[in-house]
C-alpha cells in the first residue's frame, strides 16, 4: 500500500499535541489557581510562569508535568485529553 491509501482510510482524526503553555494555562484554570499561587507552590517566580503561559519561553516538559501533577494534583494525560476535547468541540 502507498502512503496515500493509508491517509485516505483513516478512522481517527489526528490531534496535535498541545503546547506546554496551553497545558499549563488550562490546568491552572481548571484548579482555580492564580499565576502567583501556582508559581509560589512550584518554587519559581511568577514572571517565569507568566512567560511560559504567554509563549514567550517554552517550559521544559518536566516543569509542565511537575506543575500539573504536583501543584494542581491532576493527571497530565487526562489534562491533555480534556484540552484536545475542548479544541475538537470548538472547531
From TrEMBL:
Transmembrane segments: none annotated. It comes from the Bacteria. GO terms for molecular function: DNA binding. InterPro entries: Cro/C1-type_HTH, Lambda_DNA-bd_dom_sf. CDD domains: HTH_XRE. This is Transciptional regulator. It comes from Pseudoalteromonas luteoviolacea S4054.
